[in-house]
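Box 3.1. Reading complex inputs
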Amino acid sequence: MPGSKLGLLKLETLARLEETALSTWMRESGFAFFSALTVHSLAMAFVVGINFAIALRLVGFAPRLEIAALSRFYSLHWYAAVFIFISGMALLLAYPAKALTNPVFYLKLAALTLGLLISRHFQATFFDRPKVTNDRRTINLAYVSVLLWVVTLTAGRFLAYTHNTLLASRYF
Amino acid sequence: MIEILLSFSQATGIYSFMNSPWGWPVAESIHFFGLCLLVGTVGLFDLRMMGFAKEISLADLHRLVPAGVAGYSLNVVTGIMFLSTAPDQYIYNPAVQSKFFFMLIAGINMVFFYATTANEVKSGDAISRVLFRAKAIAALSLACWCAVIICGRLITYYRPPYHWCLWC
Protein backbone atom coordinates (compact mmCIF):
# COMPACT_ATOMS: atom_id res chain seq x y z
CA MET A 1 0.00 0.00 0.00
CA PRO A 2 2.61 2.68 0.90
CA GLY A 3 4.02 2.52 -2.68
CA SER A 4 6.75 5.10 -3.36
CA LYS A 5 9.54 6.16 -1.03
CA LEU A 6 7.79 9.48 -0.51
CA GLY A 7 4.53 7.72 0.34
CA LEU A 8 6.36 5.55 2.84
CA LEU A 9 7.96 8.60 4.45
CA LYS A 10 4.59 10.29 4.67
CA LEU A 11 2.98 7.25 6.28
CA GLU A 12 5.88 7.00 8.72
CA THR A 13 5.32 10.61 9.79
CA LEU A 14 1.59 9.99 10.17
CA ALA A 15 2.27 6.82 12.18
CA ARG A 16 4.49 8.84 14.52
CA LEU A 17 1.71 11.39 14.91
CA GLU A 18 -0.79 8.61 15.70
CA GLU A 19 1.44 7.39 18.48
CA THR A 20 1.44 10.70 20.36
CA ALA A 21 -0.48 10.71 23.64
CA LEU A 22 -2.98 13.30 22.40
CA SER A 23 -3.79 11.39 19.23
CA THR A 24 -4.19 8.13 21.15
CA TRP A 25 -6.48 9.85 23.68
CA MET A 26 -8.59 11.41 20.93
CA ARG A 27 -8.97 8.01 19.29
CA GLU A 28 -9.51 5.84 22.33
CA SER A 29 -11.57 8.11 24.55
CA GLY A 30 -15.15 7.81 23.35
CA PHE A 31 -15.94 11.07 25.13
CA ALA A 32 -13.18 13.06 23.40
CA PHE A 33 -13.86 11.69 19.92
CA PHE A 34 -17.64 12.03 20.01
CA SER A 35 -17.44 15.48 21.65
CA ALA A 36 -15.26 16.68 18.76
CA LEU A 37 -17.59 15.02 16.25
CA THR A 38 -20.68 16.59 17.84
CA VAL A 39 -19.15 20.09 18.05
CA HIS A 40 -18.03 19.73 14.41
CA SER A 41 -21.56 18.82 13.27
CA LEU A 42 -23.24 21.58 15.31
CA ALA A 43 -20.81 24.25 14.13
CA MET A 44 -21.07 23.02 10.54
CA ALA A 45 -24.89 23.17 10.73
CA PHE A 46 -24.71 26.83 11.84
CA VAL A 47 -22.08 27.89 9.28
CA VAL A 48 -23.80 26.14 6.38
CA GLY A 49 -27.26 27.14 7.64
CA ILE A 50 -26.36 30.84 7.83
CA ASN A 51 -24.79 30.67 4.37
CA PHE A 52 -27.90 28.96 2.98
CA ALA A 53 -30.15 31.64 4.50
CA ILE A 54 -28.07 34.47 3.01
CA ALA A 55 -27.84 32.69 -0.36
CA LEU A 56 -31.61 32.14 -0.37
CA ARG A 57 -32.14 35.84 0.21
CA LEU A 58 -29.63 36.78 -2.50
CA VAL A 59 -31.29 34.58 -5.12
CA GLY A 60 -34.64 36.20 -4.46
CA PHE A 61 -36.38 34.54 -1.50
CA ALA A 62 -37.99 36.90 1.03
CA PRO A 63 -37.22 40.04 -1.05
CA ARG A 64 -38.30 42.42 1.73
CA LEU A 65 -35.71 40.99 4.11
CA GLU A 66 -32.80 43.45 4.27
CA ILE A 67 -29.55 41.77 3.26
CA ALA A 68 -27.48 44.18 5.32
CA ALA A 69 -29.45 43.28 8.46
CA LEU A 70 -29.35 39.56 7.67
CA SER A 71 -25.58 39.70 7.34
CA ARG A 72 -25.44 40.51 11.09
CA PHE A 73 -25.53 36.73 11.50
CA TYR A 74 -22.01 36.58 10.04
CA SER A 75 -20.58 37.33 13.50
CA LEU A 76 -22.13 34.07 14.78
CA HIS A 77 -21.01 32.37 11.56
CA TRP A 78 -17.33 33.18 12.21
CA TYR A 79 -17.52 31.94 15.81
CA ALA A 80 -18.97 28.67 14.50
CA ALA A 81 -16.22 28.54 11.84
CA VAL A 82 -13.61 28.69 14.62
CA PHE A 83 -15.31 25.70 16.29
CA ILE A 84 -15.26 23.84 12.94
CA PHE A 85 -11.52 24.46 12.72
CA ILE A 86 -10.76 23.38 16.32
CA SER A 87 -12.95 20.27 16.24
CA GLY A 88 -11.70 19.44 12.74
CA MET A 89 -8.12 19.57 13.96
CA ALA A 90 -9.03 17.29 16.88
CA LEU A 91 -10.66 14.78 14.51
CA LEU A 92 -7.70 14.98 12.16
CA LEU A 93 -5.35 14.33 15.05
CA ALA A 94 -7.33 11.21 16.01
CA TYR A 95 -7.03 9.62 12.55
CA PRO A 96 -4.50 11.64 10.53
CA ALA A 97 -3.84 8.95 7.90
CA LYS A 98 -7.56 8.34 7.36
CA ALA A 99 -8.03 11.93 6.21
CA LEU A 100 -4.67 12.93 4.77
CA THR A 101 -4.41 9.90 2.44
CA ASN A 102 -7.94 10.44 1.11
CA PRO A 103 -8.50 12.86 -1.84
CA VAL A 104 -12.08 13.44 -0.60
CA PHE A 105 -10.61 15.20 2.46
CA TYR A 106 -8.82 17.72 0.22
CA LEU A 107 -12.00 18.23 -1.77
CA LYS A 108 -13.83 19.05 1.48
CA LEU A 109 -11.04 21.39 2.57
CA ALA A 110 -11.00 23.20 -0.79
CA ALA A 111 -14.80 23.59 -0.91
CA LEU A 112 -14.87 24.78 2.73
CA THR A 113 -12.11 27.34 2.11
CA LEU A 114 -13.75 28.69 -1.05
CA GLY A 115 -17.14 28.78 0.71
CA LEU A 116 -15.66 30.80 3.58
CA LEU A 117 -13.95 33.18 1.12
CA ILE A 118 -17.32 33.84 -0.53
CA SER A 119 -18.84 34.41 2.93
CA ARG A 120 -16.10 36.95 3.63
CA HIS A 121 -16.82 38.65 0.31
CA PHE A 122 -20.57 38.79 0.99
CA GLN A 123 -19.97 40.12 4.47
CA ALA A 124 -17.67 42.86 3.15
CA THR A 125 -20.19 43.72 0.42
CA PHE A 126 -23.38 43.82 2.44
CA PHE A 127 -22.58 44.35 6.11
CA ASP A 128 -23.69 47.84 7.19
CA ARG A 129 -24.51 48.84 3.61
CA PRO A 130 -28.32 48.98 3.44
CA LYS A 131 -28.39 50.50 -0.07
CA VAL A 132 -26.44 47.78 -1.87
CA THR A 133 -28.57 45.78 -4.29
CA ASN A 134 -27.86 42.26 -5.46
CA ASP A 135 -26.78 42.15 -9.09
CA ARG A 136 -26.45 39.17 -11.48
CA ARG A 137 -22.85 38.46 -10.41
CA THR A 138 -23.86 38.32 -6.74
CA ILE A 139 -26.76 35.99 -7.52
CA ASN A 140 -24.43 33.65 -9.45
CA LEU A 141 -21.95 33.77 -6.57
CA ALA A 142 -24.77 32.84 -4.17
CA TYR A 143 -25.50 29.73 -6.28
CA VAL A 144 -21.78 28.88 -6.29
CA SER A 145 -21.76 29.32 -2.50
CA VAL A 146 -24.66 26.85 -2.09
CA LEU A 147 -22.90 24.38 -4.39
CA LEU A 148 -19.66 24.68 -2.41
CA TRP A 149 -21.44 24.08 0.90
CA VAL A 150 -23.24 21.05 -0.54
CA VAL A 151 -19.87 19.70 -1.71
CA THR A 152 -18.41 20.37 1.77
CA LEU A 153 -21.25 18.48 3.49
CA THR A 154 -21.24 15.62 1.03
CA ALA A 155 -17.45 15.22 1.07
CA GLY A 156 -17.58 15.30 4.88
CA ARG A 157 -20.08 12.46 4.95
CA PHE A 158 -18.23 10.46 2.28
CA LEU A 159 -14.96 10.68 4.25
CA ALA A 160 -16.20 7.89 6.49
CA TYR A 161 -16.84 5.62 3.50
CA THR A 162 -13.95 6.35 1.12
CA HIS A 163 -10.75 6.05 3.17
CA ASN A 164 -8.18 3.41 2.19
CA THR A 165 -6.02 3.74 5.28
CA LEU A 166 -7.49 4.03 8.77
CA LEU A 167 -4.21 4.00 10.70
CA ALA A 168 -0.73 4.46 9.22
CA SER A 169 0.84 2.63 12.17
CA ARG A 170 -0.50 -0.71 10.90
CA TYR A 171 2.15 -0.61 8.13
CA PHE A 172 5.07 -0.44 10.57
CA MET B 1 -42.01 -3.66 14.44
CA ILE B 2 -38.64 -4.54 12.94
CA GLU B 3 -40.29 -6.89 10.43
CA ILE B 4 -42.86 -4.26 9.40
CA LEU B 5 -40.17 -1.63 8.84
CA LEU B 6 -37.95 -4.04 6.93
CA SER B 7 -40.74 -5.24 4.66
CA PHE B 8 -41.70 -1.61 3.96
CA SER B 9 -38.08 -0.85 3.05
CA GLN B 10 -37.81 -3.90 0.80
CA ALA B 11 -41.19 -3.36 -0.88
CA THR B 12 -40.46 0.28 -1.71
CA GLY B 13 -36.93 -0.28 -3.04
CA ILE B 14 -35.43 1.76 -0.20
CA TYR B 15 -33.53 -1.28 1.07
CA SER B 16 -31.86 -1.91 -2.30
CA PHE B 17 -30.90 1.74 -2.67
CA MET B 18 -29.53 2.03 0.88
CA ASN B 19 -27.50 -1.14 0.45
CA SER B 20 -26.03 0.02 -2.86
CA PRO B 21 -22.39 1.18 -2.64
CA TRP B 22 -23.22 4.91 -2.14
CA GLY B 23 -26.83 4.75 -0.96
CA TRP B 24 -26.16 5.26 2.74
CA PRO B 25 -23.72 8.23 2.48
CA VAL B 26 -25.93 9.92 -0.14
CA ALA B 27 -28.92 9.68 2.23
CA GLU B 28 -26.74 10.96 5.10
CA SER B 29 -25.60 13.93 3.02
CA ILE B 30 -29.20 14.83 2.13
CA HIS B 31 -30.17 14.40 5.81
CA PHE B 32 -27.49 16.87 6.91
CA PHE B 33 -28.38 19.25 4.06
CA GLY B 34 -31.97 19.33 5.35
CA LEU B 35 -30.75 19.93 8.87
CA CYS B 36 -28.62 22.89 7.74
CA LEU B 37 -31.63 24.40 5.96
CA LEU B 38 -33.61 24.02 9.19
CA VAL B 39 -30.89 25.62 11.33
CA GLY B 40 -30.36 28.39 8.77
CA THR B 41 -34.02 29.40 8.74
CA VAL B 42 -35.84 28.24 11.89
CA GLY B 43 -32.64 28.54 13.95
CA LEU B 44 -32.01 32.11 12.79
CA PHE B 45 -35.66 33.00 13.43
CA ASP B 46 -35.25 31.62 16.98
CA LEU B 47 -32.06 33.64 17.48
CA ARG B 48 -33.81 36.78 16.24
CA MET B 49 -36.70 36.21 18.67
CA MET B 50 -34.15 35.81 21.45
CA GLY B 51 -32.87 39.29 20.68
CA PHE B 52 -30.05 38.73 18.20
CA ALA B 53 -29.84 41.10 15.18
CA LYS B 54 -32.75 43.28 16.30
CA GLU B 55 -32.68 45.32 13.06
CA ILE B 56 -34.25 42.40 11.18
CA SER B 57 -38.02 42.39 10.85
CA LEU B 58 -39.38 39.14 12.30
CA ALA B 59 -42.17 39.03 9.71
CA ASP B 60 -39.61 39.30 6.88
CA LEU B 61 -37.26 36.74 8.42
CA HIS B 62 -40.21 34.39 8.86
CA ARG B 63 -40.53 34.25 5.05
CA LEU B 64 -37.44 32.01 5.00
CA VAL B 65 -39.11 29.44 7.28
CA PRO B 66 -40.75 27.51 4.38
CA ALA B 67 -37.21 26.60 3.26
CA GLY B 68 -36.68 25.16 6.75
CA VAL B 69 -39.88 23.15 6.40
CA ALA B 70 -38.54 21.80 3.08
CA GLY B 71 -35.31 20.87 4.89
CA TYR B 72 -37.29 19.16 7.62
CA SER B 73 -39.23 17.19 4.98
CA LEU B 74 -35.93 15.96 3.53
CA ASN B 75 -34.95 14.90 7.05
CA VAL B 76 -38.17 12.96 7.54
CA VAL B 77 -37.82 11.14 4.21
CA THR B 78 -34.14 10.24 4.71
CA GLY B 79 -34.80 9.45 8.38
CA ILE B 80 -37.44 6.90 7.33
CA MET B 81 -34.91 5.47 4.87
CA PHE B 82 -32.36 4.89 7.67
CA LEU B 83 -34.90 3.58 10.15
CA SER B 84 -36.59 1.17 7.77
CA THR B 85 -33.33 -0.19 6.33
CA ALA B 86 -31.63 -0.97 9.65
CA PRO B 87 -34.42 -0.82 12.26
CA ASP B 88 -32.50 -2.91 14.82
CA GLN B 89 -29.76 -0.26 14.83
CA TYR B 90 -32.22 2.53 15.51
CA ILE B 91 -35.34 1.69 17.45
CA TYR B 92 -33.49 0.28 20.47
CA ASN B 93 -30.87 3.00 20.42
CA PRO B 94 -31.17 5.55 23.28
CA ALA B 95 -29.67 8.31 21.11
CA VAL B 96 -32.46 7.78 18.55
CA GLN B 97 -35.11 7.69 21.26
CA SER B 98 -33.73 10.91 22.75
CA LYS B 99 -33.67 12.46 19.27
CA PHE B 100 -37.35 11.61 18.77
CA PHE B 101 -38.14 13.02 22.23
CA PHE B 102 -36.49 16.37 21.40
CA MET B 103 -38.23 16.44 18.00
CA LEU B 104 -41.55 15.92 19.79
CA ILE B 105 -40.83 18.76 22.25
CA ALA B 106 -39.79 21.01 19.33
CA GLY B 107 -43.02 20.11 17.52
CA ILE B 108 -45.24 20.84 20.55
CA ASN B 109 -43.32 24.08 21.13
CA MET B 110 -43.89 25.09 17.50
CA VAL B 111 -47.64 24.40 17.72
CA PHE B 112 -47.78 26.43 20.95
CA PHE B 113 -45.89 29.28 19.23
CA TYR B 114 -48.22 29.45 16.25
CA ALA B 115 -51.30 29.13 18.48
CA THR B 116 -50.37 31.77 21.03
CA THR B 117 -47.52 34.05 20.03
CA ALA B 118 -46.72 34.08 16.29
CA ASN B 119 -49.22 36.76 15.22
CA GLU B 120 -48.16 39.22 17.93
CA VAL B 121 -44.48 38.61 17.22
CA LYS B 122 -44.83 39.00 13.44
CA SER B 123 -47.01 42.13 13.73
CA GLY B 124 -44.43 43.70 16.03
CA ASP B 125 -46.80 44.03 19.01
CA ALA B 126 -44.01 43.03 21.31
CA ILE B 127 -45.45 43.93 24.70
CA SER B 128 -43.13 42.70 27.41
CA ARG B 129 -45.17 39.63 28.37
CA VAL B 130 -45.30 38.43 24.76
CA LEU B 131 -41.64 39.23 24.34
CA PHE B 132 -40.69 37.05 27.30
CA ARG B 133 -42.90 34.19 26.09
CA ALA B 134 -41.48 34.50 22.57
CA LYS B 135 -37.93 34.43 23.92
CA ALA B 136 -38.67 31.34 26.03
CA ILE B 137 -40.24 29.56 23.04
CA ALA B 138 -37.30 30.49 20.82
CA ALA B 139 -34.73 29.33 23.38
CA LEU B 140 -36.54 26.01 23.81
CA SER B 141 -36.80 25.55 20.03
CA LEU B 142 -33.12 26.26 19.45
CA ALA B 143 -32.09 24.03 22.36
CA CYS B 144 -34.27 21.19 21.00
CA TRP B 145 -32.82 21.41 17.48
CA CYS B 146 -29.26 21.49 18.85
CA ALA B 147 -30.13 18.45 20.98
CA VAL B 148 -31.52 16.73 17.87
CA ILE B 149 -28.18 17.27 16.09
CA ILE B 150 -26.21 16.05 19.12
CA CYS B 151 -28.36 12.93 19.52
CA GLY B 152 -28.12 12.26 15.77
CA ARG B 153 -24.36 12.38 16.01
CA LEU B 154 -24.38 10.06 19.03
CA ILE B 155 -26.36 7.32 17.26
CA THR B 156 -23.15 5.61 16.13
CA TYR B 157 -21.68 5.97 19.64
CA TYR B 158 -24.46 3.81 21.05
CA ARG B 159 -23.98 0.98 18.56
CA PRO B 160 -24.57 -1.89 19.07
CA PRO B 161 -27.74 -0.72 20.74
CA TYR B 162 -28.61 -3.84 22.75
CA HIS B 163 -25.77 -3.21 25.22
CA TRP B 164 -26.69 0.39 25.93
CA CYS B 165 -30.42 0.81 25.70
CA LEU B 166 -31.90 1.78 29.08
CA TRP B 167 -35.46 1.39 27.85
CA CYS B 168 -35.25 -2.14 26.40
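In summary: Chain A has a mean pLDDT of 90.
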